[in-house]
Amino acid sequence: MPQIVILAIESSCDDTSAAICIDGKVVSNLTANQKIHEQYGGVVPELASREHTKNIIPVVEAAMKKANVTNSDISAIAFTRGPGLMGSLLVGGMFAKSMAQALNVPLIDVHHMQAHVLAHFIDEPMPKFPFLCLTVSGGHTQIVLVKDYLNMEIIGETLDDAAGEAFDKTAKLLNLPYPGGPLIDKYAQLGNPLAYKFAQTNVDGLNFSFSGIKTSILYFLQKELKSNPDFIKDNLNDICASVQHAIISILIKKIHKAATELNINEIAIAGGVSANSELRKQLTEVGLNNNWNTYIPDFQYCTDNAGMIAITAFHKFQKNMFTSLNIPIEARLLM
After folding, report:
1. What is the pLDDT of residues 249-261, one digit of tens each?
2. Which are the contacts of 102, defined by CB distance < 8 A and separation ≥ 6?
3. pTM for the full model?
4. How far is CA 40 from CA 8, 128, 171, 187, in A?
5. Residue 241's closest CA among 314, 145, 174?
6. Rounded CA separation 8/18 (Å)
7. Domain 5-117+302-318, what fold?
8. Are strands 25-32 and 16-22 parallel, antiparallel or unpaired?
């Protein structure tokens, strides 16, 4: 039987990534980051799409070379259809469509958040169905009930801002360079997580809200800076630790509630914020206390990457779930 070789492309935000998956095994996964956004304190959509245009061919060529495959080996081409930045998605989507048409191979569209969940099936250990996945990124915060590879249900989500956005906005208030989330994690390890308390919005059920904590942090800093202009500099570690503690406590509380209500002990995390060291630590500790089997992806599969697109496409390939060259890109694609 011929090998199933999938070339996958991820371009939903500011990372241009390409991966090769052979018979369900990701053999190369390369990403080009965009440093240009650092000077602006956040991603500039127009600049991101321009950088994708520059990066996509070199990254694809490098991924194929590392996997030792040629155009004639490719069985299908996969790409992120959404959600994400429209300009960025268009670059990856049009490249994938053009290459699929030129090689006369099937095209597979992939949902970005579904792929984050399926990143758990790249390496061992892998969760057993059904499992709960807390997907946390700059744009999304969800609890997903995963019944099978391609059968998922969102049972809880943020009603306003995402947890990753709360980290990023706080970092900006603290004058930390972009991306600020990893820096908050770094400084938090040196601080006292109970030094300061921030107001949290109580939300019923399994949904989240992070707008209240963002506002609380803003007002807290404004008040302290009035009496001490050096407050942030003098207390950066404690501020970061306290902010991180507040955000992560919300996440852990909700996933614990979901696991208890549904009587599920297979628990996973995914998305960019799953790279946060404190979230990984707390999930592991809570899992041990509750007899959960917890699953935390390798760092390279936490942030946006084509490996997760490739593994999702592999499972769609097996079910002949191919798509038309005319399928539209959707910046707000629903799962």
Report:
1. 999 999 999 999 9
2. none
3. 0.95
4. 29, 42, 13, 22
5. 174
6. 6
7. Nucleotidyltransferase; domain 5 (3.30.420)
8. antiparallel
Burial class (CB in 10 A: 0-12, 13-18, 19+), 326: exposed
Residues 24-47: tens digit of each pLDDT: 999 999 999 877 777 777 778 888
Q: Three-state SS for 35?
A: helix
Q: Which residues are CB-neighbours of 174 under 8 A, at least 6 positions away?
A: 180, 184, 221, 232, 236, 239, 240
What is 127-297's CATH topology? Nucleotidyltransferase; domain 5 (3.30.420)
Taking each continuous run of H as one helix and of E as one strand, the counts in the chain are 9, 10
In whole angstroms, what is the distance from residue 223 CA to residue 232 CA? 11
Cα(131)–Cα(114) distance, rounded to whole angstroms?
Answer: 14
Give strand pairing partners of 110: 80
